[in-house]
Amino acid sequence: MSRSIYVNSKVTSKNVNSKVTGKNVNSKVTFSRLNVSKKAPSGAPLGKLPNHEPTSDSKASGDSRDLRYKRQSIVSRLLPDSRTANCLKHVVSDKVTILKSKEFGKCHYSGLMTCGSVWTCPVCAAKISEKRKIELKSAVDEHTLSGGSVLLVTFTHSHKREESLQSLLDRQSKATQWFYRHRTYKELKQRYMKRGRVRALEVNYGHANGWHPHMHELWFLDVNLHDYSIIRSEIFNLWLKACSRFDLGLPSEKHGVDVRGGEDAANYVSKFGTEDAWGIESELTKANIKKGRNGSRSPFQLLDDYEEGDKQSAALFVEYVKAFKGKRQLIWSRGLKAQFELDDLTDKEVADLKDDKAEIVISISYPDWELIRRPRRVRSSISSLPGNDSRLLVLQLAENGGSAAVNMFLKGLK
Prior knowledge:
Blueprint: E1 2-10, E2 24-33, H1 65-78, E3 96-101, E4 107-110, H2 122-145, E5 149-155, H3 165-181, H4 183-191, E6 194-206, E7 210-221, E8 223-225, H5 229-245, E9 257-261, H6 265-269, H7 280-285, E10 296-297, H8 299-307, H9 311-324, E11 330-332, H10 336-339, H11 347-351, E12 358-364, H12 366-373, H13 391-413
Antiparallel strand pairs: 1-2, 2-8, 3-4, 3-12, 5-7, 5-9, 6-7, 6-10, 6-11
Helix pairs in contact: 3-5, 8-9, 12-13
């Protein structure tokens, strides 16, 4: 069944003295309302994850594993008292076990502490974001198969180099809460039959304009829109007011709000150029491996620059860690996960998940593990060795030569 509705929306703004002005225009939008059932056409329950979901950090896509371990070692030096400094180093069992995935042929450790931080740990972030991506893909696929649609909505605002990240985040949070409590948003939600949303928080740092925190959201609708211009104008007008109210830099009409449908998501994420297979769910969950644009850098890229001798990058990363402590990267609106029958696991619980299909390669005693994690003060001839210990090298040896290769390496360390 198709129908047309008329909406009033303010589409013109002038960023003068933090005042929001605009002209009311009558615009027509046509959409089709589709029946949404609790079952996909195939009869499969909504939100059931595939049996092959990865749980080891070795499967997580994105930056190479050696770079993730190298960056983790850098964090350990910068933040020696953090949980990340002991992640995949501190033994929490009577022995350390190396397991090999039967499906992917990659090895990972068991019996070690994990920090479960998407903000400070490149290794945990890769594993957690891979799991979150699978959850999102499951929800998106089932919702669209049931006749609904998913929009990718991006919120941003202007910012200055002298503004601290903590201050920007505080004001952005207040503006966001005001936005979603406003009656205009509630009317919009009802009109477009919005079922729920998933929000991801992301930040980059640019030399010219400093910290750039912004949000990506997936909006699950029970209708299919044929034109996004009207809903974008309505969202932008309210977001402009929210930013003005809480002294955020006013967003430009061109870039302040971006609204795209699932069919256009590939174009939106192509700017990163790191994974050809990314869909809209990856735009939300892969913030930890995104490359900065136009001179901007992601937090983990700051670690790379620090390793090259840039001390300011170290200070910026520490500021980022303090500002993001306790925040959630991905937030589902209340009840949305339950609609898709998805488990509500914390990041730490995801980091601790085990691969049921993995087989034991070798068990390592505590004294031998101390040799493996001991800082190496000589340059290795193996180019993939990432930094100051042998943890990744041992995984690579286990993958290619099994227990014999690991034992031979351990013998050489003694």
